[in-house]
Design brief:
Blueprint lengths: L1 H9 L8 H32 L18 E12 L16 E8 L2 E5 L6 E4 L3 E7 L1 E2 L2 E2 L5 E8 L2 E9 L5 H15 L11
Antiparallel strand pairs: 1-2, 1-9, 2-3, 3-4, 5-8, 6-7, 8-9
Length: 193
């Protein structure tokens, strides 16, 4: 019986956890995650550098006419017009936030708590429509109010979502009516023929 006891005493169970190896893998994973976040931040900053030619955002005029429409909701960002995934990050236009929109005869006032406010003059407004998405946000068809406007030599789409989605259709019709009444007709009078 002693050989069996001796044989049982000599067996040793394998190490369940190799702590140095496990700690090495965890540190490696954390370094990899930190590298990915750093690269994402560098990409965001690089995008801002590429868009640095965008002029400063206009400020709202000190005197304004009464509001035609007001909206509370969310600002989901701005993109290059027609390219819904090309987010514009310059001047804080890429920062999502709450928003208070006010439409007056002078233009569209965009007030964003905690982010840069901006103003779109009526002459810069190009179009308003309901759409399903903009960079970083996709909703059902007609879930986003997209306002296209000119800034410098660039056309920009800005996406908004009202707290009461039913009022977005009224915004589209009112903005498009404003654009149609303020746009000057194209004539050939006085040009060389």
């Amino acid at each position: 019986m002693t050989p069996l006891l001796h044989l049982a005493a000599e067996q040793k169970s394998a190490d369940v956890t190799d702590w140095p190896d496990r700690i090495g893998w965890i540190v490696g994973l954390l370094l990899f995650i930190a590298l990915v976040y750093w690269l994402m931040r560098q990409g965001w900053k690089w995008r801002g550098t590429l868009q640095s030619d965008l002029p400063p955002l206009p400020a709202a005029p000190s005197e304004r006419s009464p509001a035609k429409l007001e909206l509370s909701g969310r600002y989901h960002g701005s993109t290059t017009a027609g390219q819904w995934l090309d987010r514009i990050v310059a001047h804080g236009l890429g920062t999502r936030s709450r928003v208070e929109l006010t439409l007056t005869a002078e233009g569209l006032d965009v007030v964003r708590p905690g982010a840069t406010d901006f103003f779109v003059p009526t002459e810069a407004l190009r179009e308003a429509r309901l759409d399903k998405g903009i960079a970083g946000k996709v909703l059902t068809e007609g879930g986003l109010l997209i306002v296209t406007w000119a800034h410098g030599d660039k056309l920009i789409d800005s996406g908004f979502r009202s707290d009461q989605a039913a009022e977005q259709a009224q915004w589209v019709s009112t903005i498009n009516d404003m654009i149609n009444t303020t746009s000057t007709p194209i004539t050939t009078e006085g040009t060389a023929r």
